[in-house]
Amino acid sequence: MAANTAGTDLEGRWRDILSVHARTTCEIDRALHPHGLGASDFEVLDILATEAPRPGDQCRVQNLVGRVHLSQSALSRLIGRLEKDGLVERSVCAEDRRGVYVALTPKGRELHGEVLPLQRAVLARMLAG
């Protein structure tokens, strides 16, 4: 009987985590929508701003996989959309033609700086206590 109770407790905690994640993602989407971004778009911009902080710095796309909660094909489509919007640019690795790099453009860096406080405010509100 105790094992069943422990399993139920774990299930409940897991569902609570999923619920907080879903509500927080929806709130981030709402806050960023007027800026033409969603939560996943922001995550990619935020990782790039952190991993490649100076203009001209690049991040290998493979390093983004697993850090954003998207499949590799969904991530590729998202990066393609961000590139079309002028927020990132892609380039092929000269040494390994299979490797693709992505970097923030000045426009992407500016937008990231604009929306960062909005995303952080949602996190503070949704994750407080």
Quick tags:
129 residues, mainly alpha, Arc Repressor Mutant, subunit A, 9% strand
Molecular structure report:
- The structure is a single chain.
- With 129 residues, the protein is mainly alpha-helical.
- The chain has a single domain, classed as Winged helix-like DNA-binding domain superfamily/Winged helix DNA-binding domain (Arc Repressor Mutant, subunit A), CATH 1.10.10.
- Helices cover 64% and strands 9% of the residues.
- The protein has five helices and three strands.
- It has a three-stranded antiparallel β-sheet with strand order 1-3-2.
- Strand 2 and strand 3 (100-104) form a beta hairpin.
- The longest helix has 31 residues, at 2-32.
- The radius of gyration is 18 Å and the shape is globular.
- The two termini are 32 Å apart.
- The model has no long low-confidence stretch (mean pLDDT 91).
